[in-house]
Amino acid sequence: MFNAIVTTPRKRTDLEERARTTAELLKFPFVPRNERSYETLRRESGVKAILVVADEAPFVQTPKGRLFFHENTAGKRTKDRQKPDPLVRIMELQPDDAVLDCTIGLACDALVVAASLKDGKVVGVEVNPLLEYLVREGLRSYNFSSSRLAAAAKRIITINADHLDFLRRCEDDSFDVVYFDAMFTSGVEASSSMQRIREIAENAPLSNEAVAEARRVARRKVIIKGRRGCFTDLQFSEILPAGNRVFYGALKL
Fold first, then answer.
1. Are residues 10 and 127 in the same domain?
2. Could you tell me the residue range of the domain that residue 40 belongs to?
3. Residue 175 covered by a domain
4. Is there a contact between 98 and 173 (Cβ–Cβ < 8 Å)?
5. Buried b (16+ CB within 10 A) or exposed e, 46-77
6. What pTM value is reported for the model?
7. In sequence order, what are the residues at sequence separation of 6 or more whose Cβ sits closer than 8 angstroms to the Cβ of residue 53?
8. What is the CATH number of the domain that holds 99?
9. Which helix (DSSP H) or strand (DSSP E) does residue 226 occupy?
10. pLDDT, tens digit (0-9, with 9 covering 90-100), for 140-195
11. How far apart, in whole angstroms, are the C-alpha atoms of residue 113 and residue 91?
């Protein structure tokens, strides 16, 4: 069970009312800031993270720093419509596809995928309620760098759930593509932003059962992002490079 508290950046009645409502929604206690530093508040409350309900946007304070929603590299990856991102290419997306992102993180990949859809949708699953809330609010209110990304954000639905539990509840062939970012749980990338995400995210490795369930749920493909040399037991029908020592692998069904 993940432990956290909800607070505000300063004492203000309207913010505290909003924070109390958010805390009740997420089932975490609200703790008044009372001029204490976030580190003092975190230590006194005995929690790993603090959700701060602020004027401009919510953020999560972790021991490694502040985590907030941002579009990351999605703007750059969707800028040129004539050169689709490798993730979009390997998914072979159709305009009305339904894509399940089992490891949505901060939704960078989900935004890239959704930007290539017209009438389709991306469902993003996140087990940690703080991270899911951060992404949900960010998709709703963030000032994106392009109208294409702003439209893409409206095609993304976030769900607070364990991805294996969610997959088990899905009917056969209920999504065109199912996607896992196994890098998200493997500790391969070490950027400061990724370190802060990993402070609160689920870090369990991708299980064989989850892959098996994804095969059942996907109509066309299961896509896994991972480090080269990993998942050697899987029979990928196609592999595309996704950066230094990283690949996208496709399991055709």
1. no
2. 4-55
3. yes
4. no
5. ebbbbbbbbeebbbbbbeeeebbbbbbebbeb
6. 0.92
7. 6, 7, 8, 15, 18, 19, 22
8. 3.40.50.150
9. strand 218-227
10. 999 999 999 999 999 999 999 999 999 999 999 999 999 999 765 544 445 566 66
11. 9
